[in-house]
């Protein structure tokens, strides 16, 4: 009789998102990228475990990048790769990896053709956007042409959401995902404190499922959404059914999903 | 003749914002608190220098908190202080400070009265929200009663934006601000790359003013906003005038402020 190996447990692949930019820290601009990147990565089995927002300061970028690229499988940065003096991300990444940086021939060709077509001058500032750390590979940018780049496990993208999003599509096939985190949501017009005890007991019985409780307030319509996250679809369904039954026991009709 | 001391340069007061919650990292919930807190603090002379989003994992909260509370003047956390099993922030903060945690008599009184009034049962889960690290002082919460707390230079607030915002008002008079960062914005329908060289020279001449360049795209209306930040109002005005003159030299009519 052949050995019956236990099915391999899908590995966990982790990521960190670094948002680089004074404008996010000053409150001037509200970040829209983290939720997009986290959702995108989650679909392909990569879990964002940490996110940081840091200023356009070289030393901070270098130190932070070296800390998180050692700790997580992947690092995704946004911001600081435009043509102006405050765009220092590419130089900081080169410094973090201890490599040089110079104009990348293929990136120069792409940008040169782009500016020839648009009739704008291909100034030295615009040429800065073709500078890549040595050993980096380009990330295509069909929207505004100036490429992002990958070096090691670090993916460097633009901060403008439309450009970042197309870069995610360009780089996605280089990523190797692990277990995809699935989720179920059950909502009901019930206070968190009412359901908390029973929910804690449910969590204790299902260690492989993360059960989160999120109150919502929409004028007079308030309640709680219970979100279950895990890799086993049928276990999630069982836990979701238990949560629904729990709400009914308190006289509350549960809704599968977010509140209406 | 009395000594003429040079005017004291206002000191820089720094802060870090810690967003605690799996739901932000999974992409399910889009953070709305960082921009609010950063703007609020900036008005009273406190500059957010870093922000982190971390999961509901005790060890991560403890280590992160101990790292950033040593590095910045103030730390503001949001999330994880509700009544359910996944609300572990208060315990993690106590652990980070190496102190015990127990039900705070005044917080118990406030919550007891609240639930008596609303007719809901004051369950052990709801009583959890009255647990404060030893040595902590309450942060009032007129919206939903369960208090936040301050311990050392760390302010622990709710994640629900409406509750976080009222807590900021409750705690603001405990903060000591330094120099208030002021800003000017000049926008124009000009490409970043067109203005980049001149802008770099302008930055080199004004080391005390941070000059940021932010492209915007709104359908066919695209351009660049130049944001100047610093503590000296009249220097900011001078730099803003120079930026406006610079745009006019390229045949672009500048708008003071964000693009229309």
Question: In terms of structural class, how would the helical and strand content of chain A be classed?
Answer: alpha/beta
If you consult CATH, what is the topology of the largest domain in chain A?
Answer: Molybdenum Cofactor Biosythetic Enzyme, Chain A
- Number of helices, where a helix is a run of at least 4 consecutive DSSP H or I residues of chain A: 9
Q: H/E element string of chain A?
A: EHHEHEHEHHEEEEHEHEEHE
The level of helicity of chain A is 25-40%
Give the C-alpha Rg of chain A: 23 Å
Number of strands of chain A: 12
Features:
homodimer, 260 residues, alpha/beta, Alpha-Beta Plaits, 4-stranded antiparallel β-sheet, 9 helices, 38% helix, 26% strand
Task: Explain what you see.
Chain A has 260 residues and is of the alpha/beta class. Chain A has 2 domains: 13-174, MoaB/Mog-like domain (Molybdenum Cofactor Biosythetic Enzyme, Chain A); 182-256, Alpha-Beta Plaits (2-Layer Sandwich). Chain A has 9 helices and 12 strands. In chain A, the strands form 3 sheets. The first copy, chain A, has a 6-stranded mixed beta sheet, with helices on both faces. Chain A has a 4-stranded antiparallel beta sheet with strand order 10-11-9-12, with helices on one face. In chain A, strand 7 and strand 8 form a beta hairpin. In chain A, helix 2 runs parallel beside helix 7 (161-171), helix 3 packs across helix 4 and helix 8 (192-205) packs antiparallel against helix 9. At the A-B interface, helix 1, helix 2, strand 2, helix 6 and helix 8 of A face helix 1, helix 2, strand 2, helix 6 and helix 8 of B. Strand 2 (46-54) of chain A pairs antiparallel with strand 2 (46-54) of chain B, so a sheet runs across the interface.
């Amino acid at each position: 009789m052949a050995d019956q190996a236990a099915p391999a447990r899908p590995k966990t692949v982790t990521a960190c998102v670094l948002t680089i930019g004074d404008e996010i820290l000053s409150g001037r601009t509200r970040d829209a990228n983290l939720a997009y990147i986290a959702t995108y990565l989650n679909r392909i089995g990569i879990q964002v475990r940490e996110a940081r927002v840091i200023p356009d300061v070289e030393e901070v970028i270098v130190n932070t990048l070296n800390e998180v690229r050692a700790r997580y499988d992947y690092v995704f940065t946004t911001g600081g790769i435009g043509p102006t003096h405050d765009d220092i991300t590419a130089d900081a990444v080169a410094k973090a990896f201890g490599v040089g940086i110079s104009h990348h021939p293929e990136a120069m060709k792409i940008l040169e053709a782009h500016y020839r077509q648009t009739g704008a001058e291909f100034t030295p500032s615009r040429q800065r956007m073709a500078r890549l750390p040595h050993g980096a590979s380009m990330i295509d940018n069909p929207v505004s042409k100036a490429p992002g780049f990958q070096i090691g496990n670090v993916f460097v993208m633009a901060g403008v959401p439309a450009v970042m999003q197309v870069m995610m599509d360009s780089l996605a096939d280089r990523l190797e995902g692990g277990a995809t985190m699935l989720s179920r949501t059950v909502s009901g017009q019930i206070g968190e404190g009412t359901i908390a005890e029973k929910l804690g007991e449910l969590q204790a019985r299902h260690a492989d499922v993360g059960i989160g409780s999120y109150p919502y307030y929409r004028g007079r319509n308030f309640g709680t959404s219970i979100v279950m996250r895990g890799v086993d679809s049928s276990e999630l369904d069982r836990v979701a059914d238990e949560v629904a039954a729990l709400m009914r026991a308190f006289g509350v009709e549960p809704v599968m999903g977010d509140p209406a």
